[in-house]
Amino acid sequence: xxxxxxxxxxxxxxxxxxxxxxxxxxxxxxxxxxxxxxxxxxxxxxxxxxxxxxxxxxxxxxxxxxxxxxxxxxxxxxxxxxxxxxxxxxxxxxxxxxxxxxxxxxxxxxxxxxxxxxxxxxxxxxxxxxxxxxxxxxxxxxxxxxxxxxxxxxxxxxxxxxxxxxxxxxxxxxxxxxxxxxxxxxxxxxxxxxxxxxxxxxxxxxxxxxxxxxxxxxxxxxxxxxxxxxxxxxxxxxxxxxxxxxxxxxxxxxxxxxxxxxxxxxxxxxxxxxxxxxxxxxxxxxxxxxxxxxxxxxxxxxxxxxxxxxxxxxxxxx
Length: 318
Prior knowledge:
The structure is a single chain. The protein is an alpha/beta fold. It has 2 domains: 38-194, Orthogonal Bundle (serine acetyltransferase, domain 1); 201-301, UDP N-Acetylglucosamine Acyltransferase, domain 1 (3 Solenoid). The chain contains 10 helices and 14 strands. The strands form 3 sheets. Strands 1-4-7-10-13 form a 5-stranded parallel beta sheet. It has a 5-stranded parallel beta sheet with strand order 3-6-9-12-14. The protein has a 4-stranded parallel beta sheet with strand order 2-5-8-11, with no helix packed on it. α4 crosses α10 (181-193), α8 (151-157) crosses α9 and α9 packs antiparallel against α10.
């Protein structure tokens, strides 16, 4: 039955809710957090990018990801269909990423569509090289961990391989000057594995992160071939220079260079644009802010047995 009369309270609406809406619609409330692209293009889709990454994993590691069973006789057809989907999905996300920043992505909006498709194709052309390098990462994980029973176990289970699949993909997109998409793909791996690698970091072949959780690799890091990190390692910046207006100067080299075959053990912190020479071993929880010659071994001072008269120290406080 249709209601013919309303109570005074119903006619007044919800003044408390209206007050909240008024505050949230005030320019001083939203202007620092509101985004609208100049031409109304939607934001990049994290769901679509997750699908792109899963399809890329199936293309790079057939049989491990994607269809549960892939036979060699039909692999070509599976791969062709998968790459076609990746190309279309990735082109759209690159276009959205370009619209997110708009300026400096393409000459004008009429070229944005074409530029996105061309960039997606250039990325796909890099897939054979990405697979080749990832295969060296898998070999490093298997040969470097006595607990690994097979290379396949590292592909399917190890956080280091998950992080490096995302990073090798994101880094190629970063090299192609694709806006924001590489960072989204890197953060997907970060949330899954606890390994935080900026897509700008240059990492050589045969790279392995044992255990992984808590590792941080900064944007301008350069890591040579055959390097190995353990959990909790930070390769970071020592300082953040500012310009005359007090704003951070961005894009300058500020993270470490690790030459070939460097090992950094758990909890170590290496900061600044310093060079760690070939074959160096940095012990656990060591703090390094200076260049290190090749072949060095850095370790903390050995612990000693306390005398019976010494007071114990707990949590840094007596």
